[in-house]
Write a structure and sequence with these properties.
It is built from 28 helices and 29 strands. It is α/β, with parallel strands linked by helices and about 900 residues long. The two termini are about 60 Å apart. It binds one RNA strand of 77 nucleotides through β8, β12, α8, β13 and α11.
Length: about 900
RNA sequence: GGGCGCAUAGCUCAGUUGGUUAGAGCGUCUCUCUUACACAGAGAAGGUCAGGGGUUCGAGUCCCUUUGCGCCCACCA
């Protein structure tokens, strides 16, 4: 026994070994490399840039999903023969990483301020060195076939240069500007965040009604409501609708800000909805976007009352220094004491919260850097609208348009330290900005050396937006950039369509003049098995590493890939992973069997090379599977393709063809040699097509299979390509030409299959003992009979599939008295079960069957008599007509039985 | 307020140019440790494809509508 393969596939020992073999073998690299001799620039490559995970992050199912998906695409194209490049890398993830390090510092009783900027950054880099390769190691465990020599990090010198270049170019073009605006401020993070980083949640809050007293001492007041009483301190007007009769007499008069005593005007603005609330609106320009706009229209002063950590500032008078929420309570209590309150009521509204951290975001007046995004957005819209970029699934195109058409300027400055520092220097003398590619030593305007760099850094997504080209060398015209850019497919989750995808398209078009990729493939989110979002607090988090440890990487990958559809969330259940572990094991065992068949069969071409029905069936099926898989891959229906392969392998190849082949070889029939080889050929094609889904187990089996072929059947050719050293670079099965007769082979085999099933069924129903040896007689009609005559061995094999070693002899015009008849289309089989069966029961069974057939005949007759026959396409009508004929024949046979 | 998705077997889901008796995995029930695999094999039960209407010879699939769940965008104090 040259091969002693264990009964169970041992993924634990296989995976690391196989991955190392691939990596060391250099198979992850594009075979056509612009940096190497022999490079041919005319062959189009297939390229994916990885969505860079947070450098200090840890693997979760979202990563597992995109790695599985992208590795599938990459492996498929590699086997198709494309020079294939998958660029890996990580993202510095400004806020997330900085928070982690700050938390670690806090444990030592330190803060970043105490440490100082330089020391702090050193600490973050140390942190990055320590934890930065965990995530990439974990991605390797998933089988990712990235070119690790081309790994990038967003803070690498090269990428930092790209960021600097991009900033300067946009600045020079007037697309980047600095100015005071109302922005989203995160008091906990002490930074501005973009609109996208604010999430709204429906919450119950209190709505406070109070009196805005007229300043003239008349005792009259305007009732106003607010959910944020502390902002009263920053009010600079009360606005009413110009047509509102109730408040007409107050217009132009003054009211008094509670407690502070400031006098502010009553103005009119059509923004105010007189039917909502009290119909009067307090205007706080520095802390509300709408109020901000009103203030601009009316030239109102803007008074900030909050500081950067969410405390009241000096404008809050007696409340200065209080936390915003504490102030809210105190102020209200004071107003109550002063008789200025009316009432409070519960109120449900959406509250803005920080995407990271979840604290309440405050709109604040602040000077920040912005990208004037509209001109970029227009080009990005056009790229998709023209079809130069396709989004899969298509419905996301609408969402994409909708966002870009209503886009607001992008606030790109962050008051953080970890990130790309804004390349702007301010002059202490002339006050002007110097924005240059190389760090300046003096002001570009007045030459003063007294310049200072902007302390802020850029939004992490600014560097991410450049990722597809910055990782390839841009702004340098490197060989990689020239050859591999633009990339092919951008595969990522739909949740970052705006954050990332849209911005990459905008920046790609702006800086390279090309769409950074031709297709955007969006996958859904992975949820738990009941559709709940996974979260630590719910305790329903599935750790991919644990799953891989328990069931193997292939099982996890196959689960994520099959049964998920583009753009739709998927629910992951461990049961499914387990089932797919079983699938991998089934593959393994099929491999063991095929290898043992090769060993058992003669080593030289002897015996009959004639094709059996089973042979023709499995090759015919293989042809359609190859073609269907190809079509599904073209349409990004990877899940469907995987399912198809799963079914073909298990239900056709393993359950039927291999069972037949086993008997052929075991009985030492004259077909043993060719049968073994045909098994190997079909199985090899299956392995190749499954490789992108389950790379480890297929590679492992392939290695053994290849060795067996070389040792026992050295002349044997695979159906496509050659026996390459490793499966990862084996060629993808080509669509085989039709030779005629495929359809018939499939149909005939399926009929026999049905017959065998019917026999098994009957046996099960009648409780025939498995040990009981039975003889049976088969009667066939026309074509199939002839087919079977020349396919005796197949026929025998099929017959022996039954557990009872049921032997079926082919005879025409045989109708034994005491047999039980089974009719399957044109086939009849007689089983000598009469002794076991009550005659009357058997009659009833046949009658029931006949009734069913007659109902079907009626239905079909009615169908074919109606408009269907005229209006439906001929081949559809023909199909139904055949069905009818079959049913009629079968019914006739049963009637004869019943006579 | 605007937009999108989902609703198919007990559970989780496939089902992309509409083709007529709707599939898988898991679970349940029978039987089998048969010489690749009990992580298996053979068989069974289980669905008016959310409700209603329409288009069509024909609808799980297309259109309209109702209900329920979920998501995105906008954010009326």
């Amino acid at each position: 026994m040259p091969y002693e393969l264990p009964k169970t596939y041992d993924f634990k020992s296989a995976e690391a070994r196989i991955y190392a073999m691939w990596e060391v073998g250099g198979y992850f690299k594009p075979w056509n490399d612009p940096n190497k001799p022999g490079f041919n620039p005319n062959i189009r490559p297939f390229v994916i840039s990885i969505p860079p995970p947070n450098v200090t992050g840890e693997l979760h199912l979202g990563h597992a999903m995109f790695v599985s998906m992208e590795d599938l695409m990459i492996r498929y194209h590699r086997m198709k023969g494309y020079p294939t490049l998958w660029v890996p890398g990580t993202d510095h993830a400004g806020i997330a990483t900085q928070l982690m390090v700050e938390r670690a510092l806090a444990a030592e009783g330190l803060t970043r301020e105490k440490l100082g900027r330089e020391k702090f950054l050193e600490r973050v880099w140390q942190w990055k060195e320590k934890y930065g390769n965990i995530i990439t190691q974990q991605i390797r465990r998933l089988g990712a076939s990235c070119d690790w020599d081309r790994e990038r990090f967003t803070l690498d010198p090269g990428l930092s240069r790209a960021v600097r270049e991009a900033f300067v170019r946009l600045y020079e073009k007037g697309l980047i500007y600095r100015g005071p605006r109302l922005i989203n401020w995160s008091p906990g993070l002490r930074t501005a965040v973009s609109d996208l980083e604010v999430e709204y949640s429906e919450e119950q809050v209190t709505l406070y009604y109070f009196k805005y007293m007229l300043a003239d001492g008349s005792g009259e007041y305007i009732p106003v409501a607010t959910i944020r009483p502390e902002t009263i301190l920053g009010d600079t007007a009360v606005a009413v609708h110009p047509e509102d009769e109730r408040y007409r007499r107050y217009i132009g008069r003054k009211v008094v800000v509670p407690i502070l005593g400031r006098e502010i005007p009553v103005i009119t603005d059509t923004y105010v909805d007189p039917t909502f609330g009290t119909g009067a609106l307090k205007v706080t320009p520095a802390h509300d976007p709408h109020d901000y706009e009103i203030a601009q229209r009316h030239n109102l002063p803007m008074i900030s009352v909050l500081d950067e950590i969410g405390r009241m500032n000096e404008n809050a008078g007696p409340y200065a220094g209080l936390d915003r929420f504490e102030c809210r309570q105190r102020l209200w209590a004071d107003m109550e004491a002063a008789g200025l309150t009316l009432r409070t009521e519960p109120y449900i509204t959406s509250i803005p919260r920080a995407q990271r951290g979840g604290e309440i975001i405050e709109p604040m007046l602040s000077t920040q850097w912005f990208v004037r995004i509209k001109p970029l957005a227009e080009a990005a819209i056009e790229a998709v609208r023209s079809g130069r970029i396709r989004i899969v699934p298509e419905r996301f195109e609408k969402i994409y348009y909708n966002w870009l058409e209503n886009i607001q300027d992008w606030c790109i400055s962050r008051q953080l330290w970890w990130g790309h520092r804004i390349p702007v220097w301010y002059c202490a003398d002339c006050g002007k900005e110097t924005v240059v590619r190389e760090d300046p030593t003096q002001c570009a305007h007045c030459g003063s050396p007294r310049i200072e760099q902007d302390p802020d850094v850029l939004d992490t997504w600014f560097s991410s937006a450049l990722w597809p080209f910055s990782t390839l060398g841009w702004p340098e015209e490197t060989p990689d950039y020239r050859y591999f850019y633009p990339t092919s497919i951008m595969e990522t989750g739909y949740d970052i369509l705006f954050f990332w995808v849209a911005r990459m398209i905008m920046m790609g078009l702006e800086f390279t003049g090309k769409e950074p990729f031709h297709t955007v493939y969006l996958h859904g989110l992975v949820r738990d098995e009941h559709g709940q979002k996974m979260s630590k607090t719910k305790g329903n988090v599935i750790d991919p590493l644990v799953v891989m440890e328990q069931f193997g990487t292939d099982a996890l990958r196959f689960t994520l890939l099959v049964g998920s559809t583009p753009g739709n969330d998927m629910n992951l259940s461990i049961k499914k992973v387990e089932a797919n572990r079983n699938f991998a094991n089934k593959l393994w065992n099929a491999g063991r069997l095929v290898i043992s068949l090769l060993e058992k069969a003669p080593q030289e071409p002897v015996g009959s090379a004639e094709w059996t029905l089973a042979d023709r069936f499995i090759f015919a099926r293989l042809k359609t599977v190859i073609a269907d898989v190809e079509r599904l891959f073209q349409n990004y229906q990877y899940g469907q393709a995987g399912q198809l392969l799963y079914d073909f392998f298990w239900s056709d190849f393993a359950d039927w063809y291999l069972e037949i082949a086993k008997l052929q070889v075991a009985t030492g029939g004259d077909r043993a040699f060719y049968t073994a080889e045909r098994c190997a050929q079909v199985f090899d094609a299956i392995l190749r097509m499954l490789h992108p889904f389950v790379p480890f187990v297929t590679e492992e089996i392939y290695g053994h299979l290849r060795r067996a072929v070389l040792e026992h059947s050295a002349h044997l050719c695979p159906l496509s390509g050659t026996w390459s050293e490793v499966l990862i670079i084996a060629s993808w099965p080509e669509i085989l030409p039709e030779e005629g007769g495929e359809e018939t082979a499939i149909k005939d085999f399926e009929r026999l299959r049905e017959l065998v099933r019917a026999i098994r069924n009957l046996r099960a129903e009648k409780g025939v003992q498995p040990t009981q040896r039975l003889a049976a007689v088969l009667v066939t009609g026309e074509r199939l009979y002839e087919t079977l005559q020349e396919e005796k061995s197949t026929f025998a094999a099929l017959a022996r599939l039954d557990e009872a070693r049921l032997t079926i002899h082919a005879h025409l015009d045989t109708k034994p008295e005491k047999h039980v008849a089974l009719v399957e289309g044109e086939l009849e089989v007689y089983l000598p079960l009469a002794d076991l069966v009550n005659r009357e029961e058997e009659r009833q069974r046949l009658q029931k069957e006949l009734a069913e057939l007659e109902a079907q005949i009626q239905r079909l007759e009615r169908l074919l008599a109606g408009e269907f026959a005229q209006k439906a396409p001929p081949h559809v009508v023909e199909k139904e007509r055949q069905r009818l004929e079959e049913a009629q024949r079968a019914a006739e046979k049963i009637r004869r039985q019943l006579e």
